[in-house]
User: Fold this.
Amino acid sequence: MKNQINKIKELALKEISKARNLADLEKLRVKYLGRKSELTNVLRGVKDLSKNERKEVGEMANKLRGEIESGIKNQELRIKELEFSGIEEKEKIDVTYPGRKIQKGHLHPLTQVRYEIEEIFKSMGFLTVEGREVEDEFHNFDALNIPKNHPARDLWDTFWLKDGNLLRTHTSPMQVRFMKENKPPFRIIIPGRVFRYEASDATHESNFYHVEGLMVDKKEKITVANLKSTIACFMKNLFGEKTKLRLRPSYFPFVEPGFESDVTCPYCGGKGCRICKGTGWIELGGSGMVNQKVFTSVGFPEDKYEGFAFGFGLDRIAMIKYGVDDVRLFYGGDLRFLEQF
Ligand code: FA5
Assistant:
């Protein structure tokens, strides 16, 4: 039995010293110390030995058990040391190395133009307010002097909701809402999304943006001259000092007189080019002096106030500013297009 113990010792310590990973070491632990191991068997048989032998063999076997246990422990430390040796080199971090750049997004070009417009008007003392996208018939049409069956309703066909409300066709209904809550004098702009029931093409979308303006004060304090100078100042700020404004007579039921507002083409300076279709002018939107009927519909006394209003297509402004020839590009979500701004 002593021989057997010496053999186990020789083999176990040799194998343990050769183990190169923790899984192998665990297998050896089971092999040499487990319940079915040779050493455990020897220990179990000790009780059957003679008294003298029992003491000697028992001591030897127990000593070996301790030796194997500490052999395993030492080897475990060695394996762990081996695993971590050179880790400082392998996982070295160079804190002076330039960091990886996080790709940042940016504002949509229409939002950029909207903010720029808001800043320009803010510098002229205009307050920015927002209306609602779902409107009722009264605010979108009737209060703006467009009663049922008025031919102008055909120009502003829209999407109707089951409850009788509609998606606003312009930002003008907010003129009415604002005047119901506020007494003149005031000057506001109303940027926002509008909708039309029409097929889209290079210059038309069924969902697009307006920026509305409204300035009202006591009668004779606001004239067409104020309208013209305000719009001209805005255009020059946006497109450059040389930009000229032209007002053409036009019809919108909520203004009287009404105008179309054109600017000299910023690309050819008015000479005529592809962008302005050879005319030298680009149309931006409608404007005019607020029709007294609108003042009446918001409850203002007759002939007490006077003011001007305008409504420009924000998408058209962005198209001119950036030289984009198709409005649909703004809504396509194509990053190759959007990343250029
Ligand atoms: C109006 O909507 C009036 N509310 C503007 C107004 C306000 C006039 C205050 C007088 C006083 P109009 O339908 O023309 O007007 O639209 C204004 C501008 O929106 C147009 O000049 C054009 O630049 C732009 N626009 C019109 N329809 C579309 C469309 N489908 N897609 C993109 N832009 C459009």
Summary: The radius of gyration is 43 Å.
